[in-house]
Amino acid sequence: MDQSHIRNFCIIAHIDHGKSTLADRLLQATGTISEREMQEQVLDGMDLEREKGVTIKASAVRMQYTAADGQTYQLNLVDTPGHVDFTYEVSRALAGCEGAILVVDATQGIEAQTLANLYLALDYNLEIIPVVNKIDLSSARSDEVAQELEDLIGIDALDVLPVSAKTGAGVEAVLERLVERIPPPQGNPDAPLRALIFDSHYDTYKGVIAYVRVVDGQLKKNDTIRLMASGRTPEPLEIGIFRPGMQPVDWLSAGEVGYVATGLKTIRHVRVGDTITLNLPEEARDTVKPLAGYKPVKSMVFAGFYPTEAEDYNELKDALEKLQLNDASLVYQPETSQALNFGFRVGFLGLFHMEIIQERLEREYDLDLLATAPSVEYQVVKTNGETLIIDNPANLPDPNLVVTIAEPWMHISVFTPADYIGPVMDITTRRRGEFIQMEYLDETRVLMEYKLPLSEMIVDYYDQLKSATRGYASLDYRFDSYRSGDLVKLDVLVNGEPVDALSIIVHRDQAYLRGQRLVSKLKDVIPRQQFVVPIQAAVGKKVISRANVKALRKDVLAKCYGGDITRKRKLLEKQKKGKKRMKMIGSVEIPQEAFMTVLRLGDE
Q1: What is the CATH number of the domain that holds 524?
Q2: Which of 153-162, 285-294, 299-308, 580-589 has the lowest mean pLDDT?
């Protein structure tokens, strides 16, 4: 198709503002999907996406639309997630587009991720098409929300399109605005091939399937391609487009979005952000420059994943490798724990990202996993001047060898009704939060900005924020800086043995309180044994809290119907000796709930 008739765009929004529903209506309005094939959230293919009602993976689809001017246009939609943990997915989608539909809920107004994703789109110089959704609801404030957009980001309120993605009202106007406002792609169809890999997945029969945006040139069915980063030169098994299922085609030209089935079985050879070119002779390769690709992602939260059965280690390794292809923000490396044997230290963008990855590993790859409590990455300066990066509290050096420990601080933005300013301030300052500023968006809604340690944020902060504001608050965050603090390692000893997977790094002022809470909660979740199990929290050599899991008692006197007291004593002494011997060789099984108690140690 002529490049001037191609439009590449994405939809950006906060969670639950109707982004996936609007995508469904666009597919229906353009006849891409028949009524028989139609279902809710067509582009959310994963069961998890449907269950949780959020988009996790960016997905692409091609639509054909005949506009009011009689011309037929090719519309390439890249659907994006709305949750803050999947911002990296959003940034990758934006890099392949020229425009974005900004969806705002008419009942909720602008929220945290609305702004975060909008600023991302503006960084990529995208044309923004503002849309106010859910105008069919009785509580809709369409005009007010349009005015909010004008006041906050300078978009003319008269330019904001009122839409109901549920009923389909206003969808035709959105399509017309797409064609009018979004510029066509600027690539050169006669230049050598350059295509950007913006996503990928693994297929058992076709190998690694790369999702590509062709920037320059043309990719034909029988071309031998070269992946510039890895140097691999596969001959594609298939090239095609998404409608929304995979549909083979003979070629993809400049400006188009599609896929390439590489046939490669080694996953690491195909990297998201790599450039695909034709396999030119050696002397001609320098004439083709690689595309900019993406900034490397920085993991914020780390946790250990261990198979409950040791023999599943290799299956977990394969599963992580395949999942990494599908999620470029996932990083992992092998690690060993004294308590849990062999596993992997996995890096995530946030707690929700961690929850999704764990569920996908258990469902899609049929694994039974044990996950340790999440921690953050610390910068440790030793007495010899060496700087270490520690993402596992168990690896913290001896306190006598440490000069400073620096932790990551985040810049957070909380959108909340003005009635809840007090509770939000209280929750945040108790977690060492530092107030920056407060701005009234209108008479009822306020934006509060703080700096907060990431370690405090991942322990139940978002849940408490939602509870204190009756679900009205929304949160966005970004990395600010590393800052030194008076931090110590809190060790947990079960039956006298330190459990490295339960260690956490806390501020010294909170060590006693956290240790006490952790010990109390572990006492409730660790199963009772035939002997007393002491649980202790310690900082260095000093035990700061202790609780005992009571022993299971067997009534050895049940068979004594009266008789001499010495007979009873003899039986009790025999039991006492047996328990002592059992304690010497006894080991305690620690359930998954014990590792997750650390997540619930926030201020209650």
Answers
A1: 3.30.70.2570
A2: 580-589
> Within its chain, how far is the Cα of 472 from the centroid?
22
Residue 142, C-beta contacts closer than 8 angstroms, at least 6 positions apart: 106, 132, 135, 162
Asked if pLDDT for residue 600 goes beyond 70, the answer is no
Residue 334 domain boundaries: 301-371
Q: Is residue 295 part of a domain?
A: no
Cβ–Cβ under 8 Å, residues 50 and 41: yes
pLDDT tens-digit profile of 117-147?
Answer: 788 888 888 898 989 988 888 888 888 888 8
Alpha carbon dihedral 124, 130, 133, 135, in 10-degree steps, equals 170
> How does the average pLDDT of the chain come out, rounded?
81
**286, 253 contact by CB (below 8 A):** no
Residues 169 and 34 in one domain: yes
* Angstrom distance (rounded) from CA 348 to CA 454: 13
Q: Among 371, 401, 432, which residue terminates a domain?
A: 371
The DSSP-derived string for 21-65 is HHHHHHHHHTTSS-TTT--TTTT--SHHHHHHTS--S-EEEEEEE
pTM of the model: 0.73
3-state secondary structure of 231: coil
What's the number of domains the chain is made of?
5
Of 260, 287, 314, the last residue of a domain is 287
Closest CA to 355 of 48, 579, 95, 102: 48
Return the residue matching tokens 């703080």: 450
- Joined together, the tokens standing for residue 40 give 């809710």
Q: Residue 104 and residue 177: Cα distance in Å, rounded?
A: 17
Q: In this structure, is residue 278 part of a structural domain? A: yes
pLDDT-derived band at 603, boundaries 50, 70, 90: very low
Closest to 294 (Cα-Cα) out of 271, 260, 261: 271
Tell me: do 575 and 441 sit in the same domain.
Answer: no
